[in-house]
Amino acid sequence: MFCVKCGAECEDFEDSGILRQKCPHCGYIHYKNPYPCVAVLVINDRGQVLLGKRGEKSIYPGKWCLPCGYIEYDETYFEAAIRETKEETGIISPPDGIINVVSNMFDNGVHSLVVVMISYYHGSEPLKPGDDIIDASWFDVDDLPPLAFSADVFSISKYEKMLAEGGITALTVEGNSVYGH
Ligand SMILES: [Zn+2]
After folding, report:
1. Residue 156 alpha carbon to ligand 1 centre in Å
2. Domain 35-164's class?
3. How many CB atoms lie within 10 A of CB 149?
4. Backbone angles phi, psi at 145, to 5 degrees
5. Per-residue pLDDT tens digits for 96-140
6. Cα(4)–Cα(25) distance, rounded to whole angstroms?
């Protein structure tokens, strides 16, 4: 790879046992880190969960998943959750709390860190699949279609378990640090 700062060709560099790329010209070290992402477990008034069917260009096409995606640089994870849910399913449903955080290491080499939020949806907007999602629908939690990600299966079962144990408490989506605004 070439240096993102000066354009020189980088070299292998072992950093405490981790192989990285380092620029011999300016010394820049290319750190490779997981991508921050969000997923939203949207629950309607009937207790159903909102899922999207993945398009042909996605990893695991044809399978279903929670609304999810990458956090853009100029937004908080909370804003990303609202945006991804709207883009992929057409509804606006702000998150009510965090239900899980998972590390996903996919077959395509992508490693993502996913903040999984829960959102209680009380509206009745029609679902409109969009972005890389080709269908969107509400499902009973005991009658789910094939899911793309085991982390989604886990988050849904965690939600059921929390419900059975008396509900979800002590959740928060507050506390972001936004400086200079
Ligand atoms: Zn450089």
Report:
1. 45
2. alpha beta
3. 22
4. -75, 175
5. 889 889 998 888 788 999 999 999 999 999 999 998 999 999 999
6. 12
Does the predicted model carry a pTM greater than 0.90?
Answer: no
Joined together, the tokens standing for residue 109 give: 């080499």
The single-letter DSSP state of residue 24 is T
**Per-domain residue ranges of the chain:** 1-32, 35-164
User: What's the 73 CA to ligand 1 centre distance in angstroms?
Assistant: 23
Over residues 133-161, the pLDDT tens digits come to 999 999 999 999 999 999 999 999 999 98
Pairing outcome for strands 111-120 and 35-43: parallel
Report the C-alpha gap between 127 and 110 in whole angstroms. 29
Q: How far is the CA of 28 from the centre of ligand 1 (A)?
A: 5
* CATH level 2 (architecture), domain 1-32: Single Sheet (2.20)
